[in-house]
Write a structure and sequence with these properties.
The chain is built from no helices and 4 strands. By secondary structure, it is an all-beta fold.
Length: 58
């Protein structure tokens, strides 16, 4: 799931997965991080899901 929020001149996007789907570490890769695995790893959240917030300028 994606959560998107506007903050001033940036768009914050949070990538969210259920805690055990898939098991083990999961990361977000793309042009924004030169497709480097492990740079933007999803972290456990208070509600039991895994998530990672990324911000981008408009």
């Amino acid at each position: 799931m994606l959560e998107r929020r506007q903050v001033k001149d940036r768009t914050h996007v949070t990538f969210v997965l259920p805690a055990e789907t898939p098991p083990g570490p999961v990361g977000v890769v793309g042009d924004f991080n030169d497709r480097q695995p492990g740079v933007h790893t999803l972290e456990p959240r208070h509600d039991g899901t895994k998530g990672r917030l990324l911000g981008a300028k408009r």
